[in-house]
Amino acid sequence: MEEDVLPKVKRSFYAVVVKRILDIVISSAALIILSPLLLTVCVLELIFHGSPVIYRTRRPGKDGRIFNMYKFRSMTNERGADGLLLPEDKRLTRFGHFIRKLSIDELPGLINIVKGDMSIVGPRPLLIEYLPYYNARHAMRHAVRPGLTLERIDGTDSGTWTWREQFENDIWYIEHISFITDVRMLFAIVKAVFRRSENRASDTRTPFDGTNLDETRGRNELGIEKHFDSLEKKD
After folding, report:
1. pTM for the model
2. Distance between the two ends of the chain, CA-based, in angstroms?
3. Strand pairing category for 66-72 and 54-60
């Protein structure tokens, strides 16, 4: 069984030392170069979403350690009569949809990279509520720092991006970390930004529960409306 095969994490000099140095240098330079864009987005955030402009969400990092991940807000904080946040599709604004589509909402994550919480390239940090559901193989995605992004190895933008496909993509990466692999990923990231993925902007994938690795239907199709404590945090 594939699930019983534990991956061997690549521990090369590049993976352990050089990658971290490049993360610091590139993300620090990006924060400086992109500062005019960041300031502009902050102003627009205040106009469209109000304060605060930065959204903090708790996510598992390397070895499952929890950290606060920073993103630009793409939704309002509207709540229902029960005090819970309304479904995402009711809170996502046009401006939020736009910055998601161009991945601009991810730019505050550069601060996480400088701090050492994340890497530029690596498995995406998912919800802490998913931690109990990973099998031993897929839990190994936390053996390295999570990344700002990790594009699909096959380079597609399919609407049937299942949890199994994502986790196996993550496993492939941690087994093949190298300078060349990261350069390939960076080019894939640039390509994805210009492609303006509608799948990411309107993410409706069903939450992971350990039993739906191959589910292709979205939560809207399944009628799932689930709330997570890690997403309910008020700033």
Report:
1. 0.87
2. 44
3. antiparallel
Please report, for the chain, the start and end positions of each structural domain, with discontinuous segments joined by +.
2-218
Q: Report the share of the chain in percent with pLDDT over 70.
A: 86
93 vs 79: CA distance, rounded Å: 15
Beta-carbon contacts of 53 under 8 Å, excluding residues fewer than 6 positions away, are 41, 42, 45, 46, 72, 73
Average of per-residue pLDDT across 31-60: 94
Q: How far is CA 17 from CA 55, 79, 112, 199, 222, in A?
A: 30, 45, 18, 34, 44
- Quick one: three-class SS letters along 37-68? HHHHHHHHHHHHCCCCCEEEEEEECHHHCEEE
Q: How far apart are CA 175 and CA 218, in angstroms?
A: 30
Give pLDDT tens digits for 188-232.
777 766 665 555 555 678 899 999 999 888 777 777 766 676 766
